[in-house]
Design goal:
59% helix; mainly alpha; two-stranded antiparallel ribbon; Rhomboid-like fold
Length: 218
Amino acid sequence: MYQGTYQPPTQFAVFPPVIKNLLILNCLLFLAQIVPETNNILIYWFGLWPLGSAPIPLGQFWPWQLVSYAFLHGNFSHLLFNMFALWMFGVQVENTWGSRRFAVFYFVCVIGAAVLQIIVASTGAGWYPTIGASGGVFGLLLAFGMMFPDQPIYLYFLFPVKAKWFVIGYGLIELYAGVSGSSTVAHFAHLGGMMFGFILIQYWRGRLPWKPEQRMFW
């Protein structure tokens, strides 16, 4: 429920506007990435690069990359997983919050994930770009777990786990993987999306020193 004049949508949409447009844009850009030359250009200009001077011919950081990286993916399975998770966790969130609030939340998570990833990548070894919608998706996963804590999520479509435990467990796995450096996956971007999403939710709920004009409840 929301306090004030806001009224949540009365009709549930399977593909609400923001999610539908995100799915379309991500898929269209992935089609462009299939062409190697186009993919190289997109990664060079729109992948998220660390701060500083890059070794030639690698890319360098530009401000728009804080958002644009989230529309590029490494391969089809990367795209499929992110888009399925975006739809699965985002549908109920957007239908409950409304499209405007949902869009703000998603892109705050995307930018927050980018900021934390830049900090980590700029202090580590190697020079590589970060791409993928995972930062925004993990923010939505957190929101889903906070809004519907007892709703079951089926692991491998077979084993039910309550959303709150799924979120906590996934967050701990990402933290361990990020600290241990066990793979090339941008684990800190995932954590950044969850962290900034949590902060924004707490702000909307009036639990930070800065209070919103309209508090959010559920």
